[in-house]
Amino acid sequence: MWNLQDAKARLSELVDRAVMGEPQIVLRRGEPAAVVLPYSEYEAERKPRESLFSFFQNSPLYGLDLDLERSPETIQEMRDIKL
């Protein structure tokens, strides 16, 4: 973690550490304010995430004929469970 003044004074070192794979946290008035991380991690976070529908559609189990019926006993047991 870096105080903002130290981060300004030693920006090159802060960036070098981030590039080596260690995200660097910058504090402002003692509170976390920013994170410096490798550009590749930033890009990975920006990449659109797959929708849940797409995830299931691309699953190797997609299209299998699964028996999803439950016996009446199992249904009753599920109802009896107190959470």
Task: Provide structural commentary.
This protein has 83 residues and is α+β, with helices and mostly antiparallel strands. The chain has a domain at 1-50: YefM-like domain (YefM-like fold, 3-Layer(aba) Sandwich). Helices cover 46% and strands 16% of the residues. It contains five helices and three strands, in the order E-H-H-E-E-H-H-H. It has helices at residues 4-9, 11-19, 39-46, 52-57, 72-80, and strands at 2-3, 24-28, 31-36. A three-stranded mixed β-sheet has the order 1-2-3. The protein is elongated. The mean pLDDT is 91.
| β-sheet strand percentage | 15-25%
CATH topology value of one domain: YefM-like fold
The Rg value, from CA coordinates, equals: 25 Å
**Largest sheet: number of strands, sense, barrel closure:** 3 strands, mixed
The CATH architecture name of one domain reads: 3-Layer(aba) Sandwich
**Helix segment count?**
5
Structural class, judged by helices and strands? alpha+beta
Report the uncertain regions.
none
Instruction: Name the shape in a single word.
Output: elongated
Helix fraction by DSSP (H/I, runs of at least 4):
40-55%
**Sheet with the most strands: spatial strand order:** 1-2-3
The CATH class label of one domain is Alpha Beta
What is the succession of H and E elements? EHHEEHHH
Determine the mean pLDDT: 91
Distance separating the two termini:
42 Å
Oligomer: single chain
